[in-house]
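Study this pair:
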Amino acid sequence: MNQNKIYFLKTEFTKLLSTLQPEAKGKWGKMNAQQMAEHMSNAFRWASGEVKLQAMLTPEQTQKTYAFMMSDKPFKENTPNQLLPDVPVPFKHVSMKDAIAELQKEIDHFFSVYENNSGLRNINPFFGNLNFEEQVQLLHKHATHHAKQFGLVE
């Protein structure tokens, strides 16, 4: 298990996001900073199993997406997500600070769920039935993608 990825998710990601203004625009994409933070809360809810999702791809397609997920290749800019509307949803929270607090709560919950259920697997609609290490790989790839989008990391 890559402890650097775990540390980034647990500790660094929300610190980086706290440097952004809610309406900040990324280098690509339609979401502003607060919408992205709220979007990442959803990603952690999916990974923890708090929100149950169904597979959306065939086993053959999932095999290919899983191989990509486990690679060091980053998500491409403007990678579409079939679960998201064409227009970003309005803010759920009144402030960026509240959005980041919820995200940190979801991150902490994710790690707690897997600490208490080491063999747990949850379905990701695009990448398959994932265990803890696979979820960390995906969440780190996803968080890094958005951190790059907003110029927070290279």
User: Anything to note?
Assistant: Strands lie at 122-124, 128-130. The radius of gyration is 15 Å. Residues 96-116 form the longest helix (21 residues).
